[in-house]
Amino acid sequence: QFDYENALIYHRKALNLKVDTNSKNNSLNNIAYVYIEMQNYLKAIQILQPITLKKEFKTQNKKYIFLDNIGYSYFKMGDPKAIHYLKESLKLRKINNDEWGLITSYSRLAEYYLKNNPSLSKKYAFLAYHKAKKINDINDLLNNLTLLIKTSEGKQLKYYSEKYIYINDSI
Protein backbone atom coordinates (compact mmCIF):
# COMPACT_ATOMS: atom_id res chain seq x y z
CA GLN A 1 0.00 0.00 0.00
CA PHE A 2 1.20 3.47 -0.83
CA ASP A 3 1.62 6.27 1.69
CA TYR A 4 -0.41 8.91 -0.13
CA GLU A 5 -0.50 11.37 2.74
CA ASN A 6 3.30 11.54 2.99
CA ALA A 7 3.55 11.79 -0.77
CA LEU A 8 1.26 14.82 -0.67
CA ILE A 9 3.25 16.39 2.15
CA TYR A 10 6.55 16.12 0.27
CA HIS A 11 5.12 17.23 -3.06
CA ARG A 12 3.61 20.27 -1.34
CA LYS A 13 7.00 21.05 0.21
CA ALA A 14 8.48 20.98 -3.29
CA LEU A 15 6.01 23.71 -4.27
CA ASN A 16 7.61 26.03 -1.70
CA LEU A 17 11.06 25.77 -3.27
CA LYS A 18 12.28 28.73 -5.27
CA VAL A 19 12.05 27.19 -8.73
CA ASP A 20 10.70 28.18 -12.14
CA THR A 21 7.07 27.92 -13.22
CA ASN A 22 7.60 24.66 -15.11
CA SER A 23 8.99 23.02 -11.97
CA LYS A 24 6.11 24.31 -9.83
CA ASN A 25 3.63 23.03 -12.40
CA ASN A 26 5.37 19.65 -12.41
CA SER A 27 5.01 19.52 -8.62
CA LEU A 28 1.31 20.33 -8.97
CA ASN A 29 1.02 17.54 -11.54
CA ASN A 30 2.66 15.15 -9.08
CA ILE A 31 0.15 16.17 -6.42
CA ALA A 32 -2.69 15.66 -8.88
CA TYR A 33 -1.32 12.22 -9.77
CA VAL A 34 -1.39 11.23 -6.11
CA TYR A 35 -5.06 12.23 -6.05
CA ILE A 36 -5.63 10.12 -9.19
CA GLU A 37 -4.05 7.17 -7.41
CA MET A 38 -6.38 7.87 -4.47
CA GLN A 39 -9.31 7.89 -6.96
CA ASN A 40 -10.06 11.51 -6.14
CA TYR A 41 -10.36 12.49 -9.80
CA LEU A 42 -12.24 15.73 -9.27
CA LYS A 43 -9.47 17.05 -6.99
CA ALA A 44 -6.87 16.14 -9.64
CA ILE A 45 -8.82 18.05 -12.29
CA GLN A 46 -9.22 21.03 -9.95
CA ILE A 47 -5.43 21.17 -9.60
CA LEU A 48 -4.53 20.59 -13.26
CA GLN A 49 -7.22 22.51 -15.16
CA PRO A 50 -6.11 25.99 -14.00
CA ILE A 51 -2.54 25.28 -15.12
CA THR A 52 -3.71 24.58 -18.68
CA LEU A 53 -5.50 27.94 -18.80
CA LYS A 54 -2.42 30.02 -17.95
CA LYS A 55 -0.58 31.80 -20.76
CA GLU A 56 2.76 30.19 -19.84
CA PHE A 57 1.25 26.69 -20.26
CA LYS A 58 1.98 26.99 -23.98
CA THR A 59 5.69 26.68 -23.17
CA GLN A 60 5.25 24.10 -20.38
CA ASN A 61 7.63 21.15 -20.72
CA LYS A 62 5.79 17.93 -21.42
CA LYS A 63 2.35 19.52 -21.19
CA TYR A 64 0.92 16.32 -22.63
CA ILE A 65 1.34 14.73 -19.19
CA PHE A 66 -1.03 17.31 -17.69
CA LEU A 67 -3.55 16.83 -20.50
CA ASP A 68 -3.36 13.05 -20.16
CA ASN A 69 -3.96 13.17 -16.42
CA ILE A 70 -6.96 15.47 -16.90
CA GLY A 71 -8.34 13.18 -19.60
CA TYR A 72 -7.83 10.08 -17.50
CA SER A 73 -9.52 11.73 -14.53
CA TYR A 74 -12.51 12.74 -16.66
CA PHE A 75 -12.66 9.19 -18.05
CA LYS A 76 -12.68 7.66 -14.57
CA MET A 77 -15.52 10.04 -13.66
CA GLY A 78 -17.47 9.02 -16.77
CA ASP A 79 -17.23 12.48 -18.34
CA PRO A 80 -17.13 12.59 -22.17
CA LYS A 81 -14.65 15.49 -22.05
CA ALA A 82 -12.02 12.81 -21.44
CA ILE A 83 -11.49 11.89 -25.08
CA HIS A 84 -10.44 15.41 -26.11
CA TYR A 85 -7.67 15.48 -23.53
CA LEU A 86 -6.54 11.90 -24.14
CA LYS A 87 -6.30 12.43 -27.91
CA GLU A 88 -4.55 15.79 -27.57
CA SER A 89 -2.00 14.23 -25.23
CA LEU A 90 -1.42 11.38 -27.70
CA LYS A 91 -0.90 13.86 -30.53
CA LEU A 92 1.69 15.83 -28.56
CA ARG A 93 3.49 12.68 -27.42
CA LYS A 94 3.79 11.53 -31.02
CA ILE A 95 5.21 14.92 -32.05
CA ASN A 96 7.75 14.73 -29.19
CA ASN A 97 8.62 11.05 -29.77
CA ASP A 98 7.93 10.27 -26.11
CA GLU A 99 8.10 6.45 -26.20
CA TRP A 100 7.23 5.97 -22.53
CA GLY A 101 4.43 8.49 -22.72
CA LEU A 102 2.99 6.85 -25.83
CA ILE A 103 2.58 3.65 -23.86
CA THR A 104 0.52 5.56 -21.29
CA SER A 105 -1.57 7.30 -23.95
CA TYR A 106 -2.27 4.10 -25.86
CA SER A 107 -3.07 2.21 -22.65
CA ARG A 108 -5.46 4.86 -21.42
CA LEU A 109 -7.20 5.03 -24.79
CA ALA A 110 -7.48 1.22 -24.77
CA GLU A 111 -9.07 1.44 -21.35
CA TYR A 112 -11.34 4.30 -22.49
CA TYR A 113 -12.70 2.32 -25.45
CA LEU A 114 -12.87 -1.08 -23.70
CA LYS A 115 -16.64 -1.15 -23.12
CA ASN A 116 -17.97 0.86 -26.07
CA ASN A 117 -15.55 0.01 -28.87
CA PRO A 118 -13.61 -3.20 -28.12
CA SER A 119 -11.91 -3.31 -31.54
CA LEU A 120 -10.50 0.20 -31.08
CA SER A 121 -9.54 -0.72 -27.52
CA LYS A 122 -7.67 -3.72 -28.87
CA LYS A 123 -5.86 -1.56 -31.44
CA TYR A 124 -4.60 0.81 -28.75
CA ALA A 125 -3.70 -2.02 -26.37
CA PHE A 126 -1.74 -3.66 -29.20
CA LEU A 127 0.15 -0.42 -29.89
CA ALA A 128 0.92 0.02 -26.18
CA TYR A 129 1.98 -3.62 -25.87
CA HIS A 130 4.47 -3.30 -28.73
CA LYS A 131 5.90 -0.03 -27.41
CA ALA A 132 6.31 -1.63 -23.97
CA LYS A 133 7.96 -4.65 -25.56
CA LYS A 134 10.34 -2.40 -27.50
CA ILE A 135 11.60 -0.68 -24.34
CA ASN A 136 11.23 -3.78 -22.14
CA ASP A 137 8.69 -2.31 -19.70
CA ILE A 138 7.34 -5.43 -17.99
CA ASN A 139 4.54 -3.74 -16.01
CA ASP A 140 3.10 -2.09 -19.10
CA LEU A 141 3.51 -5.34 -21.05
CA LEU A 142 1.37 -7.14 -18.48
CA ASN A 143 -1.19 -4.32 -18.22
CA ASN A 144 -1.69 -4.25 -21.96
CA LEU A 145 -1.77 -8.01 -22.27
CA THR A 146 -4.65 -7.84 -19.79
CA LEU A 147 -6.45 -5.41 -22.11
CA LEU A 148 -5.68 -7.59 -25.13
CA ILE A 149 -7.08 -10.62 -23.28
CA LYS A 150 -10.28 -8.69 -22.51
CA THR A 151 -10.72 -7.77 -26.20
CA SER A 152 -9.75 -11.09 -27.78
CA GLU A 153 -11.31 -14.47 -28.37
CA GLY A 154 -10.34 -17.83 -29.76
CA LYS A 155 -6.71 -18.33 -30.73
CA GLN A 156 -5.78 -14.74 -29.95
CA LEU A 157 -7.22 -15.03 -26.46
CA LYS A 158 -5.19 -18.18 -25.89
CA TYR A 159 -2.04 -16.57 -27.32
CA TYR A 160 -2.27 -13.43 -25.15
CA SER A 161 -3.20 -15.46 -22.06
CA GLU A 162 -0.21 -17.75 -22.47
CA LYS A 163 2.04 -14.73 -23.09
CA TYR A 164 0.73 -13.11 -19.91
CA ILE A 165 1.33 -16.24 -17.83
CA TYR A 166 4.83 -16.69 -19.25
CA ILE A 167 5.91 -13.09 -18.57
CA ASN A 168 4.24 -12.95 -15.16
CA ASP A 169 5.91 -16.20 -14.09
CA SER A 170 9.28 -14.89 -15.28
CA ILE A 171 9.28 -11.91 -12.97
- What is the molecular shape? globular
How far the N terminus sits from the C terminus, by CA atoms, comes to 20 Å
Stretches where pLDDT is under 50 for at least 5 consecutive residues are none
DSSP summary, beta strand count: 0
* Biggest sheet statistics: none
Give the quaternary arrangement of the chains: single chain
Helix share bin: over 70%
Number of helices, counting only DSSP H or I runs of 4 residues or more: 9
Question: What structural class do helix, strand and pairing data support?
Answer: mainly alpha
Strand content: under 5%
Give Rg in angstroms: 17 Å
Whole-number mean pLDDT: 94
User: Helices and strands, in N-to-C order?
Assistant: HHHHHHHHH
Set out the fold topology.
Blueprint: H1 4-15, H2 21-37, H3 41-53, H4 63-77, H5 82-95, H6 99-113, H7 118-135, H8 138-150, H9 154-170
What labels would you give this structure?
171 residues, mainly alpha, 9 helices, globular
Offer a concise description of the structure.
The chain is 78% helix and 0% strand.
How would you describe the overall organization of this protein?
With 171 residues, the protein is an all-alpha fold. 78% of the residues lie in helices and 0% in strands. The chain has helices at 4-15, 21-37, 41-53, 63-77, 82-95, 99-113, 118-135, 138-150, 154-170. Helix 2 (21-37) runs antiparallel to helix 3. The longest helix has 18 residues, at 118-135. It starts with a helix and ends with a helix.
